[in-house]
């Protein structure tokens, strides 16, 4: 019986708004026939990220794609290894003859080191290897000294995590995401001057071993051959990578995670009829300002438009595009997920409906 080669796994990490999902979408759109499984780790009960990724061309039918997108509902993947991640990996290991690669997108606050250490477990180690940990950096935010596009919101998330040192500067969490990296992408490089980009490169390099490559990108557009096939075998050397939070996560067997939860985060799902695009975006922006909403994701039905409008918001910055035509059997409705802390679902939905007059 032929022995199967280890299944390569790419882990993508980075702060909220750095462009991780955009990078994954680019990778899937350019898969060139590779059979890729995706584990999406995102806050919220409804997996909008998963829905986005299912629209990508991954070299299989849509029905098959639905079986290859795995979503872990808990916000911190490094703390769901025993509960959710391990069963998913076991299933993928059983199917590895049908797969060429696995992509994992961590949440914006996940520390990658404990996740990489999970690949030292015998049942995973015998079948999979971490091809690379890719850390996506928001270059304009680092140039501004904030490290994240919305540092107050990232810091608010961090303060809800009992396993993190709440008094340390945000730079330490940024450094920890870099500490596990095998490849660093300076994303949004087109949005800052060459001089600022050079400063960002130097600052990032201070946190990295000399062998780690640093590349520049705009909207996550990097050739796939640069992103996969690195063969880093990260699980073999991750223990030697220093992290500011090593003492918080214990060893690779998941110890020390019992008290970790994200119950303070609220996820609100709102369904609306068709809505004018500009009115909807203005209303959502106002809600973000008033209620401190962290993320908004979803789809909108716009009157007289045959295409579905995909909306992704981080703070008051929204990206939108028409992703596909509405199907005949689908109800033309607007479906949004709003994520934040201490959100009043009834009040927010009422305000949104009033702004849209629906």
Automatic annotation (TrEMBL):
Q: Which residues form the CobW C-terminal domain?
A: 265-356
Single GO term (MF): nucleotide binding
Q: Where is the composition biased (Basic and acidic residues)?
A: 248-264
- GO-annotated cellular components: cytoplasm
- One annotated GO biological process: cobalamin biosynthetic process
Q: Name one Pfam family in it.
A: CobW_C
The domain of life is Bacteria
Which portions of the sequence form the region Disordered? 237-264
Reaction(s) catalysed by this chain's protein:
GTP + H2O = GDP + phosphate + H(+)
Q: Which UniProt keywords apply?
A: Chaperone, Hydrolase, Nucleotide-binding
NCBIfam families (alphabetical): CobW (TIGR02475)
Protein function:
Zinc chaperone that directly transfers zinc cofactor to target proteins, thereby activating them. Zinc is transferred from the CXCC motif in the GTPase domain to the zinc binding site in target proteins in a process requiring GTP hydrolysis.
Family the UniProt entry places it in:
Belongs to the SIMIBI class G3E GTPase family. ZNG1 subfamily.
This one is known as CobW C-terminal domain-containing protein
- Source organism per entry reads Pseudomonas fluorescens
